[in-house]
Amino acid sequence: MAAQGYLVELKGLDDAQLDHDERTITASISLAAGAERKVEMRVLAPRDSAGDALSVSMHLAHFHTMSEAWVHRTITVDTRRSPQESGNTGGGLTSAGVVTVIWLVVTSFAVALTGVMVGGRRGFFSPRAGVVAIMVAIGFWLVFAGMAWRDYRVLNEWTASTATIVGRRVVHHTVNSQSRTTGGTSRSSDVAKPEFALRYVVQGRDMLSTGYDTGSSLRVGGGKAQLEKEFQEWTVGAQVPCWYDPRDPADVVLKRGYGGAYLFALLPLLPFALGWFILRSALSGKP
């Protein structure tokens, strides 16, 4: 199966062995010459997966003759947008993309207006540079504000339910950093985050989707220790508490609460203070 797909239903194979972690199905069947066997699979794609194609590979082996063959098939699947994305523009911009474009326009207007009204010297400590520093800091805080609003809604507005885990995988993200003490040597670290395929009930009907947390958790040391613990407890077939968005029931999480990522909201304090000092000095007529 595709590396990102979750097998949630299988028909046509008796006593099939499913390995959800490896995305493989193993089965033995008796098939006479010229006969056919119809196999149906229902595959769930993660919410963040890209593309509109599903690829399946099948390895056929005949034990008596030791002959084998590989069969590859790719089909095009329909994609569905969530309610948060249904109101986007024809160019495919989501609500977050629209907000980003508006903020860039507002920042450009504020910089231009500062140059007209205040003027002053050019360079790193010019009034325009001060406005840019302030607007960039506010932009970062708006991102964290959106994250906090999501956490608040999960805690107070989302509906509680019980989910059955039908699949799981580990999503790896590579984070690059540069060290000044080693002459600018670049380092990369691997951050592992679990993702679970879930089956739960929404207003009397079954729902299939993927999720884990709200996005504000901070995985220390790449999250390997926490990942191993969660994979031991949250196995395929286990029933776990979950929370889903009543506006978009496909948006579901297993973990909720304000995470450690908000510590990074302190980083824009320095550019904001520097920009405020520069702008205040320019407005007060100081050199």
UniProtKB/TrEMBL annotation:
Pfam families: DUF3592. It comes from Brevifollis gellanilyticus. The keyword Kinase does not apply. InterPro entries: DUF3592. Keywords: Membrane, Transmembrane, Transmembrane helix. This is DUF3592 domain-containing protein. The chain crosses the membrane at residues 96-118, 130-149, 261-279. Residues 170-258 form the DUF3592 domain.
